[in-house]
Each structure stands twice: as structure tokens, then as C-alpha cells.
Design a protein that fits this description.
Distance between the termini: 14 Å
Order of helices and strands: EEHEEHEEEH
Number of helices: 3
Oligomer: single chain
Number of strands: 7
Length: 165
């Protein structure tokens, strides 16, 4: 099985640096769960994640071109232990990732939401309000921007292990 997914980080307005007052451990945990789901349900296509400035604060998002979510499952999706009705999931996971992420986002003052179309993809997003933005300042031309360097990953050992199970 060969999986081809293009990962892209999308940052907000390039000429602005934003300092956010929040819990970095919890934000990292939330992104890990959302990205894990995106990779799990996207066999081919893209995964984008990042943020954009809104009138109310900052919106963070993870979107993919995966299998999407059936409208009939919409109310159940954030319930603990719900793993979907799609046989693709199998025995992977406990169905807690989205429920925990939604709870953490609520504690941070946001609300986890999603839009989805079956066989097209999904977009999970949440906002952090203006009150959590400590400062917003322009990035000066002489400041060095860091590039995200990605290396090719050999998935063969993982594929072999999965095929043995």
C-alpha cells in the first residue's frame, strides 16, 4: 500500500508576528490529534494546517482531502468512544481524540467545529479570541524567517508491520 499525501503549513498574514497567550502543551496535543486523524483518513491528496487572523482572534485549522464524514454521523462525532461507522477504522484507536480535543479547546475558550463532504475531505477548525493575543507586530525585513525543512520518510517498515497485523 502506497500512501501519497502532501503536507502544507499555511500561516496567516506573512508580515505579522502574533504572540498568543495560551497553553502550548494543550495546543500541541490538539494539533497532534487533528493531524493524526487527517493522516489516518487521507490515503492520497493533501493535508493543510495552520492559522489565519480573523476579526474575533485567530482561527486554527486542519483540512484534508480524505474520505470525509457522512452527515448522519455529525452529532456523534465528538462523543467519547465514537469511532465512526466506516469499516476503514477497524480497531485503530479508542475514539477519544476528537472528544478530548473538543474539551481542551472549550477550556481554552474556543469551540471545535468541522465541515466535511464524503469522498472530498474535511476541515476541522477552532478560534482563540482576541483577548488571548498578547501582541501583534510587523516582521521587519531584516528579521530572518525560518524555513520548514521536510525530509522524505521511508514508510516501508511501518507498511510491513501493518500488513503483518
Amino acid at each position: 500500500m502506497r500512501i501519497i499525501v502532501w503536507l502544507k503549513v499555511i500561516k496567516g498574514k506573512e508580515d505579522t508576528e502574533i504572540e498568543l497567550f495560551s497553553d502550548p502543551v494543550r495546543l500541541t496535543h490538539i494539533f497532534q490529534k487533528l493531524l493524526n486523524n487527517a493522516f489516518f483518513f487521507t490515503q492520497e491528496g493533501f493535508i493543510h494546517f495552520g492559522y489565519q487572523r480573523t476579526a474575533d482572534g485567530i482561527e486554527f485549522f486542519v483540512e484534508d482531502s480524505g474520505c470525509g464524514i457522512d452527515e448522519s454521523n455529525r452529532e456523534l462525532f465528538f462523543k467519547p468512544f465514537f469511532r465512526g461507522k466506516n469499516q476503514l477504522i477497524g480497531s485503530k484507536g479508542f475514539g477519544l481524540g476528537l472528544a478530548i480535543s473538543k474539551g481542551l479547546i472549550n477550556l481554552l475558550g474556543g469551540n471545535l467545529q468541522f465541515t466535511s463532504t464524503p469522498n472530498v475531505g474535511s476541515r476541522f477548525f477552532f478560534s482563540i479570541g482576541k483577548s488571548n493575543i498578547v501582541s501583534e507586530k510587523p516582521i521587519l525585513p531584516d528579521q530572518q524567517k525560518k524555513k520548514l525543512v521536510m525530509k522524505a520518510i521511508n514508510f516501508a517498515p511501518i507498511e510491513n508491520k501493518l500488513s503483518q497485523n
